[in-house]
Specification:
The chain has 189 residues and is mostly helical. The protein folds into two domains: 11-83, Rna Polymerase Sigma Factor, Chain: A, CATH 1.10.1740; 105-188, Arc Repressor Mutant, subunit A (Orthogonal Bundle), CATH 1.10.10. 82% of the residues lie in helices and 0% in strands. The chain is built from eight helices and no strands. It has helices at residues 11-34, 37-53, 55-59, 63-102, 109-127, 131-141, 147-154, 158-188. Helix 1 packs antiparallel against helix 2 and helix 6 (131-141) packs across helix 8 (158-188). The longest helix is centred in the middle third of the chain and has 40 residues, at 63-102.
Length: 189
């Protein structure tokens, strides 16, 4: 067995060695690419979770191949992160653009103000949804995708997507009803 392989170590010790050897360089890589310390830490956690899951495969590799494997996974994680960010940003932009298009072009300023307020409330309610529900809802509404297509993109079963869509709609409905009740109480008080 080559001397630069660590196959003789117990799994926990081998993982600790991998972590100690590559933590700083991977964190610097993520931080440099994202510019966000929290995101960099999240990605670092994910890469070492994947390393743990593939520990046997990593132990078979030479030290330079271990580093190559880790940075390949890091590059793929960044690609996934940016893809997710792009989808989220484009969905939010599309929602904003779509809402502006639906504003009445009448001269009645009160109607326009009311519609704008309703759209702001809807946008706030959507933003308060958990990220997974928000993403699925926006993909369906703005992306005009069905549950199978969303499932393929997010690597989820179509049934799970349908359930999460129902949950997102239910939470939106509840949030908007609570705001409406709160406004009625304000107007009465």
């Amino acid at each position: 067995m080559p001397s630069d392989k660590c196959g003789l170590l117990p799994p926990e010790a081998f993982f600790e060695q991998i972590y100690a050897s590559h933590r700083q360089s991977l964190h610097a890589y993520f931080l440099g690419r994202t510019g966000d310390g929290e995101v960099a830490l999240d990605l670092l956690q994910e890469i070492f979770l994947r390393a743990w899951r593939n520990l046997a495969r990593l132990q078979e590799k030479a030290a330079d191949q271990q580093r190559y494997w880790l940075f390949t996974v890091a590059k793929n994680l960044l690609t996934d992160y940016y893809r997710h960010q792009r989808v989220q940003t484009s969905a939010q932009t599309a929602l904003h653009d779509q809402t502006l298009e639906t504003l009445p072009t009448q001269k009645a300023p009160d109607a326009q103000i009311e519609v704008r307020e309703q759209l702001q409330q809807l946008d706030q309610a959507i933003q308060q949804l958990p990220e997974n529900l928000r993403t699925i809802l926006l993909m369906q509404v703005l992306g005009d995708l069905n549950s199978t297509q969303i499932g393929d993109i997010l690597e989820l079963p179509a049934g799970t997507v349908r359930y999460q869509l129902a949950m997102a709609r239910k939470r939106l409905s509840e949030a908007l009803q609570l705001k409406e009740i709160g406004q009625l109480k304000q107007n009465q008080g």
